[in-house]
Design brief:
The protein is built from seven helices and no strands. It has 123 residues and is mostly helical.
């Protein structure tokens, strides 16, 4: 995959290129490792586009997984991605509730913060 193809993939999923992705691209280019990053992104594309899970379910799973890493930008991006794939705000809250059981209240709160931003944007 070229840098342009990688960027397009993220714009289609998230509406923009997350800063963490931008950093990965810049460092990979600067160090001559864009080919390695390209291979990782090609793997990501295959596992997402050819998954037995529906796009909506997959995005909900990704949202739930980001609650564990505690990076607000990633959490918000994955909440938006799931919502763009048809997940309702109630389904996103359900993921937050499930996360509370496994990850505790901090994860629940992080997820609810992301859902709150989606609620605000819809108002």
């Amino acid at each position: 995959m070229t840098r342009a193809e990688i960027e397009k993939q993220f714009i289609e999923r998230f509406g923009s290129i997350p800063s963490a992705v931008q950093t990965r691209l810049e460092v990979a280019e600067a160090t001559g490792r864009l080919e390695a990053l390209s291979a990782l992104e090609a793997f990501r594309k295959i596992t997402i586009d050819e998954s037995p899970l529906t796009a909506k379910i997959q995005r909900l799973v990704h949202f739930g997984m980001t609650l564990a890493i505690a990076e607000d930008e990633a959490i918000a991006a994955h909440a938006l991605s799931a919502h763009r794939e048809g997940a309702s705000l109630s389904e996103l809250v359900g993921v937050c509730e499930s996360a509370a059981i496994v990850l505790g209240m901090p994860a629940y709160t992080r997820g609810m913060r992301a859902v709150s931003k989606l609620l605000e944007s819809e108002s």
